[in-house]
TrEMBL record:
Name of the molecule in the record: ATP-grasp domain-containing protein
Gene Ontology MF: a single term: ATP binding
Alphabetized PANTHER family for the sequence: ATP-GRASP ENZYME FSQD, FUMIPYRROLE BIOSYNTHESIS PROTEIN C
One matching Pfam family: PylC-like_N
Alphabetic keyword roster: ATP-binding, Ligase, Nucleotide-binding
């Protein structure tokens, strides 16, 4: 590695305790000195208690957000910034040059990739344009003329973490959720085995590894039980998707279904570290080390599929106890 000292800043850290822990462990195991810092709008974000230092920042939509993050980067000599929520990806992609001028790398894909991923309709159109199998999305005309068959799936076209996603079984439910869900889209309901696939790419988009995780159980939109699977058909299909994206960078999470006839239908692209990534890391796909290496300019010329198959993750709650805070001490501006 070019440098054995790296300072990393995770933004909007929230509950991503396991990810912070794994980065710190990989740094220690590889004799990489430096700090792992976090930001959030709250001082009582659980991950804040596992980083070396935590900063309160304004909300992502606030005009002072970028300036505050840049200020922290300068103050703490940050080398690499890793955004963790969807709403900040475009903010960082649009302001990447400001950070690069200060020698700070941002682990964020191109604005084009984020634009495709952040709008489910655009994601669907990307799949269709590139002949990638995906559930049918119904147009307003098709919905108004009842050219569909139940069950259906309805969700916000700009949603995240499976919030506002409902199976629709009849006209009454379709009418209700159509009014209830803002900016809703309606699509074909797909049966099959659901997979979340973690992909690591360098800053040039070269793939290092692809790890399919079968979703056994989810809670609040995030996988709570999962198992790694070396399904070559999924790995090949995901590699094709990544190679078609206009500027992927870092960790990309792809969601798909594998049906009984072995057809693979893609539903989502999330260009960031997904909530279930600890399973892939624990299986041996060293996303933290690869992230640090790519941030230092390393190019991935060889793929690594040495991770373990059939490693199962079963999540549970864990507590943090502290006398440092009396309330949430959040920044609401």
């Amino acid at each position: 590695m070019k440098n054995t000292q790296v300072n990393i800043l995770f933004t909007s850290c929230g509950r991503r305790v396991s990810l912070i822990r794994k980065f710190k462990k990989v740094m220690a195991d590889n004799s990489i000195t430096g700090k792992v810092l976090t930001t959030d709008i709250k001082s009582n974000a659980p991950a804040a208690f596992f980083s070396d230092k935590h900063y309160l920042v304004p909300r992502v939509a606030n005009e002072k957000y970028v300036g505050r993050i840049l200020e922290i980067c300068k103050q703490e000599s940050i080398n690499l910034v890793i955004p963790l929520i969807d709403t900040e990806l475009m903010v960082f992609a649009s302001n990447k040059s400001l950070f690069e001028k200060e020698g700070v790398q941002i682990l964020v894909s191109s604005s084009k990739v984020i634009e495709i991923a952040s709008d489910k309709i655009k994601t669907n159109l990307f799949f269709i344009k590139n002949n990638i199998d995906t559930p049918k999305v119904y147009s307003m005309q098709e919905l108004s003329t009842h050219k569909y068959k139940f069950p259906l799936l309805i969700k916000p076209r700009d949603g995240s973490s499976s919030e506002g996603v409902f199976k629709v079984n009849n006209e009454n439910e379709l009418d209700f959720f159509g009014e209830y869900i803002p900016n809703a889209m309606v699509q074909e309901y797909i049966n099959g085995t659901e997979y979340t696939v973690d992909v690591m790419t360098d800053f040039q988009g070269n793939i290092k590894s692809i790890v399919p995780r079968q979703r056994i159980e989810t809670r609040a939109g995030e996988v709570s039980k999962g198992i790694t699977k070396k399904d070559q058909s999924i790995i090949d299909a995901v590699e094709r998707v990544i190679n078609l994206l206009p500027g992927p960078k870092g960790c990309i999470t792809i969601q798909c279904f594998k049906q009984e006839n072995n057809a693979i239908k893609f539903i989502e692209i999330n260009p960031r570290y997904g909530g279930g990534i600890p399973l892939s890391i624990e299986a041996g796909a060293n996303f933290p080390l690869w992230t640090i290496q790519s941030g230092q300019g390393q190019v991935f010329n060889e793929k690594d599929f040495s991770w373990k198959e059939n490693l199962t993750m079963l999540r549970f709650d864990e507590e943090v106890f502290s006398e440092r805070i009396q309330d949430d001490n959040s920044i609401s501006i």
